Amino acid sequence: MRKTPNRTRVGRGAVGAVLAATLVAGFGPAAVAAPAASDVAAAPAAATPVTTLANWPSPSGSVKVNATVPVPSSGLDGGMKRYYGIGDGGQSEKQDPMFELAPGATLRNVIIGAPAGDGVHCKGNCTLINVWWEDVGEDAATFNGGSSYTVDGGGARSGSDKVFQHNGAGTVTIRNFRVENSGKLYRACGNCSTSHQRHVVLQNVTATKVKTLVGINSNWGDTARFSNITVVGDSGRKTKICTRFQGVKKGSEPKELGSGPDGKHCLYRDSDIAWR
Question: Could you give the CA distance from residue 206 to residue 238 in angstroms, rounded to a whole number?
Answer without folding.
Answer: 15
